[in-house]
Amino acid sequence: MSENVVESITVEIEAPAEFVWAVLVDYPRYPEWNPYTVEVSTTLKIGDPIDLTLPTMDGSGDTFVNREYLRVVDPPRHLRYDTGDELPGIFAFRDQWVEPLGPGRCSYRTTDSFNGRYARTVLERTGAWVKAGFDDVARALKKRAEELWAAEGK
So which domain of life are we looking at (predicted)? Predict the structure, then answer.
């Protein structure tokens, strides 16, 4: 494990892990709720690309596409993707965890581990932005999942 890790807050969600997982991988609906990853294109098949559209760090409202590759799809608990060979001198992998906490409850958190020659530099330049984005996603996922779960009358 790299020492260059960004970790989100952990949120507890009042909905079952399977339901939260379904919200997490419902990529066509990301524009409705996700403030950090505003669009995703993927097959969810191991080894295939996952194109993540993110807002630029400057707050201008512009976006860019970050291509990564799916490595773990283990519903309803674990999703992992990494940069593969897309970025010379840097290798990053992101893990998203949905952990059951009992009937109708779970937690969510995400981490991004930066490795390679430029890992420290990338983390110094983008770490705070990534952390803020991850925290925003955690809070937004909690809100979205709980609202949808409540709307189902559960």
Answer: Bacteria
Spell out the domain ranges in the chain. 5-25+72-151
Look up the CATH architecture of domain 5-25+72-151. 2-Layer Sandwich (3.30)
Q: For residue 128, give the DSSP letter.
A: H
Give the list of residues 6+ apart from residue 74 with CB closer than 8 angstroms, or none: none
CA separation, residue 111 to residues 33, 35, 40, 141 (Å) = 20, 17, 18, 15
CB atoms within 10 A of CB 96: 23
**CA–CA dist 133, 8 (Å, integer):** 8
Query: How high does pLDDT run on average in the chain?
Result: 94
* Pairwise CA distance, residues 16 & 23, whole Å: 11
Please identify which residue in the block is written with the tokens 């779960």. Answer: 149
What is the reported pTM? 0.94
* H-only helix segments in the chain: 17-24, 30-33, 119-151
